[in-house]
Each structure stands twice: as structure tokens, then as C-alpha cells.
Design a protein that fits this description.
About 40% of the residues lie in helices and about 15% in strands. The chain is α+β, with helices and mostly antiparallel strands. It has a four-stranded antiparallel β-sheet, sandwiched between helices. The N and C termini lie far apart (about 40 Å).
């Protein structure tokens, strides 16, 4: 059974899926089928988590007020970030499209509940940040599930997390892990947009040290 599941074709397709997992910032405005979105969100239920704590908390940002606040948050943080560059780098930065918040039909804010009692603290005593790493692992599975459906995800990290917590009125013990735009990509590419724009190059090899 195992040999039949993990075929060369399976490995090839999985490699292709990872290569096509881009950080999407250019979306079509077409709606996303609710059944497809729900199926992809179920990836959170398959994700590993430290101590089986499942600390992820997902908010679907739907109202105009909430989306406007999130967009304003990004625009303010983006202006501050631009001010930190100068010369050619500032010019290049100003031309980058760094969020799809004005087009993406689905928008999610994902948090970590840092004080969840689920899992009884197992594995998080010496490294409490493991709960946040668990949320990132779940997001990665969600990302791949979306791509397998032809959908794209954009991770918006240029934000003030405390302001986001306030605007979405979440509990004090929740920490923002990311704000995500989901929808149909305008284009498909196996090359990161930042690389295509000349911002940075992807490493060709993984540096590994032996100690």
C-alpha cells in the first residue's frame, strides 16, 4: 500500500506543487467557492502542533470596516518601511506590490493562543514559541491545499500586529501570526515575484554546517 501511494509520479507532482506555492499579491476578484475554501481550511485540522495544543485561531475578515482598518494598517506600515530605504532600493521598494488586500475575495487573520490549556503545556515549557511555530506549520499545509485547488495565498507581514489585535477585538493572549489574502492568482509562476522584480535572489543550495 505504501509503495503504491508514494510513486515517482506522486513525488514529481508534490515537487511541482511546492514550486508553484508562490506568495501571491496579484489576485482576480472572482469569488472563491465556499466548499473549496472549507476543504482547504480543514488542512489546519491535519497540522502538527506541540503537545497537540492546536493553538491556531482563525478570523475571517469580511466586514468593510474590518477590511478598511486592515488596509489602513498595511498602508501606514508600508509607508514607514519605505522611509527606511534610500536611493535605488527605495525606488525599487516603492514599485513593489506587497499586498492583495484590495482585490482578494477572502481575507483571514490567523492568531496563536499563547495561553491555551489544550496540550497541557507539553513541549512548550522550555520553548513556548513552539505554539507559534505550530500555527506556521498549519498555515503551510493550508497554503499547499489552496495551491492544489489552483488558489493562491498572499502573506501580508507589513502590519502593526497590536493595532490589528485592537481593530479585530481579539483576546489579549492572542498573537497575530499573519494576515492572509486568498483568491485566484492573476498568473502562475514558479519564480518568486521579488526575485523577478530584482529585489533579491533565491539561494540555489542549502548551506549546511557540520559540528
Amino acid at each position: 500500500m505504501q509503495d503504491q501511494a508514494f510513486t515517482e509520479d506522486f513525488r514529481t507532482q508534490f515537487d511541482l506543487l511546492m514550486r508553484l506555492r508562490r506568495d501571491v499579491r496579484r489576485f482576480r476578484t472572482d469569488p472563491v467557492d465556499e466548499a473549496v475554501l472549507t476543504r482547504c481550511l480543514d488542512a489546519f485540522l491535519l497540522a502538527p502542533s506541540v503537545g497537540l495544543s492546536e493553538p491556531w485561531r482563525v478570523i475571517r475578515v469580511e466586514s468593510k470596516a474590518a477590511r478598511d482598518a486592515a488596509l489602513k494598517n498595511f498602508q501606514t506600515a508600508n509607508a514607514d518601511a519605505l522611509a527606511g530605504y534610500s536611493g535605488e532600493k527605495a525606488q525599487l521598494y516603492s514599485g513593489l506590490k506587497l499586498s492583495g488586500m484590495q482585490e482578494a475575495p477572502v481575507q483571514l487573520a490567523v492568531f496563536c493562543d499563547d495561553t491555551t490549556s489544550k496540550g497541557q503545556g507539553l513541549g512548550a515549557g522550555t520553548m513556548p514559541e513552539m505554539r507559534r511555530y505550530s500555527v506556521v506549520s498549519a498555515i503551510t499545509l493550508f497554503w499547499l491545499a489552496l495551491r492544489a485547488q489552483g488558489l493562491g495565498l498572499g502573506w501580508v507581514s507589513i502590519l502593526d500586529p497590536e493595532q490589528m489585535n485592537t481593530d479585530l477585538n481579539v483576546p489579549d493572549n492572542w498573537r497575530l501570526i499573519g494576515y492572509f489574502c486568498v483568491g485566484w492568482p492573476e498568473e502562475e509562476s514558479d519564480t518568486p515575484e521579488l526575485e523577478r522584480a530584482g529585489w533579491e535572489d533565491r539561494d540555489e543550495t542549502l548551506p549546511i554546517e557540520v559540528r
